[in-house]
Design a protein that fits this description.
Length: 1451
């Protein structure tokens, strides 16, 4: 059949602007191995392939001795070759679409349909290939009762709709064409339905009476050339073994026909007739008359030069004849001899019915999975419009409104690999086409505007807000109100009204039975999309089912689905530099700002006010085209929030004002920085009603507008002023919103504000904090004393309020001795410990829902502030206004002075205890924190004074040279310490850090030891007038800078605020702390339990962005309350180091979602300084040339320049020219005249030349900010192989159940195996089989000497040394170990020792069971004693051996 499908095509585009006579398609016969066709104004070269297995006919290549026969002369109709696609040529997708077809030209319709799909996808038709047609129902419309489609979620078949989408069984949202069939199997088409529709012509059998009749006959037959190849056809019948070749032209170059084949004299391509093989002689005579040839087709001869008139077929031919003309009519009119032949067109075929038409989509290097999914699945209104020729009943085809199109994707995946297939780690990144974005697309896309180019995903951004909400629940919200709570109604009742009585159900509502819906066609999708000026207000128009399924923006609302709302922030305009083609925001500082467009001069950074929604489960972004509320006073729209960044947002749920059963959900937005706000700091408060349910859920009242979400409303401005980069959270009761910190005009703020939702009012909470903590302590002698303790160590059960004690028992027992013990509270001005002013901190809330638990707790971590702000003091003012705290301690003979160090506003941990010798011989024992903060040198300017009584006892502490050697240009206190005195005075000297210190005065013997302790509180032992007893001395320690002067920039402290008692407290945390930071994100896990965990991610400290992940068990007691970094050994990918991002937590999925944020490269200060020093030296050398080299001879000057180039790398173009040519420099270099009229070198000009070269080669810092793309997810319950169901997953680590262990709990412990986990990494280590064996296949193989199933018991070695031939003993089970019970003469712990008889009677040693007796003892047991006499023979006893030996000796 005739179709573009299956072609292997090489597209050769033809520029339309060129003159027609200069454009020529490529020649056919000039390309060996190819044939061609010209379709839709494009030339296709068909390459033959000998290995195509699906060929209907195998290629027949013939060789006639002179060369290969051209392939286009061989096959009558070659099979469709594989399609060649520009680029990779890979198939990236298959699309399956259901069409309702009613056409009179089936094949032509398929071509147009494929082209329509290509236009819908925005690609060339070359990238779209019709693969197959599946007739579902032939001759019938796609109406209810005709199609049956399976619902993929419920696994039931639904009767599919036609126009309007009204199904008799329910919504077809979850159906797709591949799961549809005809209700009547007899009306389904056959598998080869499409192929048999092509008409097959009859045999060509021309008839004529005589030669004159033949000449007339040839004019009546209209021949053409096949568009698939070069076969000659009397359409639609191909003429066997007959071919026409030439140059193909399209209709733009010829006035007749669509495509023609003709000769091209300029290209040397003639119009030729080819006969290959045997043809009827009648055909040969006919063609000799039809064509004017440069010869004739040979006829059979029965003798030389005599034609055989009786022959029916010609001989085997292989002839080529040039064609000078063709006797053929043109348009039914005899116009004369033609010099061309038209190309055949497909025959018209009529078709009716429901068809599934499948297409292959080839890779064009532009499509990605997300864009494709958005086009095919998510924009169904565009699908109907884009894939249908016209609205029904017009047009040859229409896409159905159910089942909807589906696809298979083979290209690069936009989502991570399925963790069920292979564990990739807890982190995953979902990417989207976020750079298809421009400033024009996001500006003013609101109700009443035409938004024609809405991007498919938000641009990357930072300093935005992200809040989480859940969509409606079917049984809780939809079923009671939209399905009347009827038990027979299932979750399809929103579209299937059968259980409600059908369409008559709408008559029960005054609104839905109104004339507004008279034209309701039963459709379920919004016919208008957000590009329409009247959408979102009328997206559904008159479709009532659409109102039951979609929100105000026309998006379908899923049930119980978590959604993320993204608002505002900063982004970069994705434009490219015309000169370099690079993205501006990547290299903006390297671009010249002179000729740059104005909108590019700030690196194309833009501030946003657009609102996006991310469907977490659907992995789908949706742009929200928002509406504005109407002012009740002016009846005008209140408008929309201006673009901003660094603002705060929180979600609030409340009930409808007129119907308490209806829930409404809002996002509150406050503050931020934006150019359109007064002073660029915003104080306005906005409320956006979230379209969390379908429109029909929200009641329509008889009066007033129908409020159904997606509306901005402006509330009262904050009377305390604007701020940005603050923290903002809502309480779990949805009654309040708390705002803390942030930046204000000229400084940083530390106030805590509360916004009451119900009254739209703000209030300054002026919270309480902990001033001091007193505990009862006992010394070595058991003497009780009230002692000051760090307030952050407060424990509720220990540090009780003694004022509440009604009996001195239990936890109140100590109150009898220490009635002042307990915690003292106060406000900030009363010295209470509270968080310092800060911005860019993180703030979360959590609560314990157990009975009796406190209300919400708000926690704050980290943040940033600068030292000097608009309200701050100068360094000198800070020193002058520094406060002091006085304590009195007793000095003993060794002159020990105990200093009380009051804590700073921000508690600091004491460092390790050290001993330091100061000037004057005074020893300081303790941390430097007692005299100043060694981590922050600016706070080390402490001042110590003591009571003065005797000038001879002066000892000087020079803090300027010992503690603050790193400080410069700061006035420091040098303190005089006086001891053993009775009168009080103070003397203070000052010096500059780094300068000479005053010499010590007084005796230098017995220097006091200054012991520092980190305690707070003031002793009140001073007497009136300042006098003290003779055995006491007073020490005054400067508290340090006031909060406004504190130089601490980055914070690592953790504070929590109890909303019940309005109190701040610093949480005491043990162990290592996360690095101080700002711009981080924090979430609360298990936020409504008694075991809440705070999860911290990202941020930056100075120039270092971070991507570490920390958890804090915030409700654990004592030392269990620690920060733990958990990501050191995570497998798989990991997010980049990022700051100013957002993170939300979905509890039901136990997953955190991170979006946006700023990434940058850390500055290499060492390399930067080195390169800048080179640049400075270069400029200095160049600028100094006129002064340093004036009067120098040219030869010496050039020699110096060459030497400088070698020694110091100062090489300007002058030096390079001299070194390369060896000649004096010319008069002109780089456009600068360097010689005077007298031919002398002009040093001023040479200096300019060298300076220009220095500037051209100067180091230029590269500004490389990158905004994090995509959505990063951290699955806290994602573990390898799901722990094989043998354990639980906790922060990506398996906690295995006994007896399992291993990274994925896949290893079974052997008995006696003990495992432990690293406290920070949770990595498991196991000691197998009591450390005395190996675990093999779940059983212990014990080391020698050990037994039992856990190898824990020593066994009898070697089976008590028994052998198969000898039983030496038995192994007896005994406690605590097994023992050998030996038989007979065997003994030892393993019966390996052989005993001697009677133990040799104690008169010998036993060796291998034989006694070696002592001298004089004999016998088996050495029990016989005999006295031996030398050289005597006692007759009876004679030792013959000894006698023989003696005789030999004597001889």
């Amino acid at each position: 059949m005739s179709t573009v499908s299956g072609f292997q095509a090489l597209f050769l585009s033809v520029p339309a602007a060129q003159p027609a006579d200069t454009i020529n398609p490529p020649p056919v016969i000039g390309v060996p191995g190819h044939t061609e066709s010209w379709i839709d104004e494009h030339v296709y070269l068909h390459q033959h392939d000998d290995v195509v297995e699906n060929d209907s006919k195998r290629r027949r290549m013939q060789e006639d001795g002179t060369g290969w026969v051209l392939p286009h002369l061989v096959d009558r109709i070659p099979p469709p070759p594989i399609k060649y696609i520009p680029g990779t040529g890979a198939v990236i997708a298959r699309v399956y679409i259901m069409f309702e077809v009613r056409t009179n030209d089936w094949h032509y319709m398929k071509k147009r349909l494929s082209n329509r799909l290509a236009a819908f996808l925005g690609v060339s038709p070359l990238y779209v290939d019709l693969e197959q047609v599946v007739p579902i129902v032939v001759g019938e419309r796609c109406i209810p009762g005709v199609l049956l489609c399976r619902d993929l979620q419920r696994n039931v078949y639904l009767r599919a709709p036609g126009l309007g989408g009204a199904s008799m069984d329910g919504d077809l949202y979850n159906t797709e064409p591949r799961h549809c069939r005809g209700a009547d199997a007899s009306k389904s088409g056959s598998a080869n339905w499409d192929s048999v529709q092509a008409l097959v012509g009859s045999d060509f059998n021309p008839q004529w009476r005589d030669d004159l009749d033949l000449l007339e006959k040839v004019w009546e037959d209209d021949f053409c050339v096949s568009q698939l190849n070069t076969s000659l056809m009397l359409f639609p019948t191909p003429i066997n073994n007959t071919y026409i070749t030439g140059w193909r032209y399209d209709s733009k170059r010829r006035t007749t026909g669509n495509l023609v084949v003709a000769g091209n004299q300029e290209r040397g391509v003639p119009l030729e007739l080819h006969i290959v093989g045997v043809i009827p002689t009648k055909w040969a005579r006919y063609f000799n008359a039809k064509f004017i040839l440069n010869g004739s087709i040979p006829l059979p001869l029965y003798q030389p030069e005599v034609v055989d008139t009786t022959a029916v077929f010609t001989d085997e031919l292989n002839v080529t004849l040039g064609i000078f003309g063709v006797r053929q009519k043109e348009g039914g009119i005899r116009m004369g001899i033609l010099d061309y032949l038209p190309v055949c067109l497909d025959p018209p075929v009529e078709a009716r019915g429901c068809f599934r038409i499948d297409h292959k989509i080839y890779d064009d290097n532009l499509w990605n999975e997300y864009n494709f999914k958005n086009a095919i699945l998510w924009q169904r209104d565009r699908v109907l419009e884009g894939l249908s020729e016209y609205n029904y009943p017009f047009g040859d085809w229409n896409a159905t409104e159910g089942p909807w199109p589906s696809y298979d994707w083979y290209g690069l995946r936009m989502v991570p690999e399925d963790p069920g297939v292979r564990y990739l780690g807890p982190w995953a990144q979902y990417t989207f086409p976020q750079k298809e974005y421009s400033l024009d697309q996001q500006s003013f896309c609101q109700t009443g505007s035409n938004c024609s180019e809405i991007p498919v995903a938000p641009s990357p951004r930072y300093l935005h807000t992200a809040v989480l909400y859940y969509t409606w629940n079917f049984w809780q919200h939809a079923h009671p109100y939209l399905c009347d709570g009827k038990p027979e109604c299932g979750d399809d009742c929103l579209a299937n009204l059968t259980c409600l009585g059908g369409v008559s159900y709408f008559q029960s509502s005054f609104y839905f039975r109104s004339s507004t819906f008279d034209s309701d066609d039963g459709g379920i999708i919004a016919p208008r999309n957000l590009a329409h000026v009247d959408c979102p207000r009328t997206c559904c128009m008159s479709r009532r089912l659409c109102l039951r399924l979609t929100d105000a923006c026309g998006y379908r609302v899923p049930f119980s689905s978590p959604m993320i709302l993204i608002f505002g922030g900063k982004a970069y305009e994705h434009v490219k530099d015309p000169a370099t083609g690079r993205l501006i925001y990547h290299f903006c500082e390297q671009l010249s700002k002179v000729d740059l467009r104005e909108e590019w001069r700030s690196c194309s950074e833009v501030t946003l006010n657009e609102l996006w929604r991310y469907d977490i489960k659907g992995n789908k972004w949706e742009f929200l085209k928002t509406d504005s509320a109407t002012s009740p006073t002016t009846q005008e729209p209140v408008g929309w929030p201006v673009a901003r960044f660094g603002h705060g947002a929180a979600v609030i749920e409340m009930v409808d004002e007129q119907n308490s059963d209806i829930k409404r959900m809002y996002m509150y937005v406050f503050g931020g920085m934006g150019n359109q706000c007064p002073g660029s700091v915003c104080s306005d408060v906005w409320r956006y009603e979230i379209p969390w349910a379908a429109q029909a859920y929200f009641p329509k009242y008889p009066t007033g507008d129908w409020v159904r979400g997606n509306v901005w409303d402006r509330l009262k401005d904050n009377p305390y002023g604007g701020r940005y980069r603050h923290g903002m959270v809502s309480t779990s009761s949805m009654e309040y919103i708390y705002v803390y910190g942030g930046q204000i005009l000229g400084g940083f703020d530390n106030t805590l504000l509360r916004y009451r939702i119900s009254t739209d009012l703000w209030e300054d909470m002026r919270p309480y904090g902990r001033v001091s903590l007193t505990r009862l302590m006992y010394d070595y002698f058991g003497t009780p004393a009230a002692t000051n303790a760090p307030v952050q160590s407060y424990e509720e059960e220990t540090d009780v309020d003694c004022d509440l004690a009604w009996s001195f028992t239990g936890k109140f027992a100590h109150c009898k001795v220490c009635p002042s013990c307990g915690l003292v509270l106060g406000r900030r001005e009363e010295g209470a410990h509270m968080p310092s002013e800060r911005a860019d901190h993180s703030m979360v809330n959590f609560r314990d829902e157990q009975p009796g638990a406190v209300d919400d707790v708000i926690s704050v971590f980290g943040g940033f502030r600068t030292t000097w702000g608009y309200f701050a003091k100068t360094p000198q003012e800070c020193l002058e206004s520094a406060t002091t705290t006085t304590t009195t301690t007793t000095t003993s003979g060794d002159q020990v002075i105990t200093l009380t160090d009051p804590p700073d506003t921000t508690p600091l941990q004491s460092g390790p205890e050290t001993t330091t010798l100061l000037e004057g011989g005074v020893q300081v024992v303790g941390s430097f924190d007692t005299l100043g903060n060694d981590r922050i040198p600016e706070t080390s300017a402490g001042m110590i004074t003591t009571t003065v009584t005797d000038p001879n006892d002066r000892i000087t502490l020079d803090l300027g040279d010992t503690i603050t050697a790193t400080s410069t240009a700061t006035t420091l206190a040098t303190t005089v310490v006086i001891t053993s005195s009775t009168m009080t005075s103070t003397e203070t000297a000052t010096s500059t850090a780094g300068g000479p210190a005053p010499p010590p005065t007084g005796p230098q013997t017995n220097p006091p030891v200054v012991q520092g302790s980190y305690t707070s509180g003031v002793s009140n032992n001073l007497t009136a007038g300042g006098a003290v007893s003779s055995d006491q001395s007073t020490v005054v320690l400067r508290e340090g800078p006031t909060p406004a002067c504190s130089p601490k920039y980055y914070f690592d402290d953790y504070w929590y605020y109890d909303t019940t008692v309005n109190q701040w407290a610093a949480l005491q945390i043990f162990g290592d702390l996360p690095p101080s930071r700002k711009g981080h994100a924090m979430i609360a896990r298990n936020a409504r339990s008694n075991d809440t965990q705070v999860v911290l991610f990202g941020g930056n400290e100075q120039d270092q962005p971070l991507n570490d992940l920390w958890i804090l068990n915030v409700k654990r007691p004592g030392v269990e309350r620690t920060w733990t970094q958990i990501d050191k050994f995570f497998p798989g990918v990991k997010p980049p180091a990022v700051a100013f991002h957002t993170m939300v937590y979905v509890e039901e999925m136990d997953t955190a979602y991170v979006f946006g944020g700023l990434i940058w490269k850390r500055t290499d200060l060492t390399e930067t300084d080195r390169l800048r020093n080179i640049d400075r030296r270069c400029l200095k050398e160049a600028q100094g040339l006129p002064m340093t080299e004036h009067g120098t001879s040219e030869v010496n000057f050039l020699a110096k320049m060459v030497a400088k180039c070698t020694a110091s790398s100062f090489c300007c173009p002058l030096t390079a020219t001299v070194r390369s040519s060896g000649r004096p420099p010319p008069a002109m270099m780089s456009g600068i005249k360097i010689r005077t009229t007298e031919n002398a070198l002009n040093l001023t000009a040479i200096s300019a030349l060298c300076r220009a070269d220095c500037e051209a080669n100067a180091f230029f810092p590269e500004f490389y900010p990158v905004i994090s793309e995509g959505v990063w997810t951290f699955n806290m319950s994602s573990c390898p192989n799901n722990c094989n169901n043998h354990g639980r997953c906790d922060f990506s680590q398996c906690v295995c159940e006994p007896p399992w262990y291993g990274a994925d709990c896949s290893l079974r412990k052997c008995p006696g195996t003990v495992c432990y986990a690293d406290s920070s990494t949770k990595e498991q280590f196991c000691l197998e089989c009591s450390s005395r064996g190996r675990c093999i296949e779940n059983a212990c193989v014990c080391d020698p000497g050990w037994s039992y199933e856990d190898c824990s018991v020593p066994v009898c070695e070697n089976n008590c040394s028994s052998t198969p031939f000898e039983q030496r003993g038995v192994c007896v089970e005994d406690f605590p170990v097994h023992q050998c019970h030996c038989f007979g003469r065997y003994s030892g712990y393993n019966c390996s020792e052989l005993l001697c008889l009677n133990a040799c009677s104690g008169r010998g040693i036993c060796v291998n069971g034989m006694c070696q007796c002592e001298i004089g003892f004999h016998g088996d047991d050495c029990s016989i004693f005999m006295i031996e006499f030398e050289n005597q023979n006692f007759g009876i006893y004679a030792d013959e051996e000894a006698a023989g030996t003696d005789a030999a000796t004597a001889a």
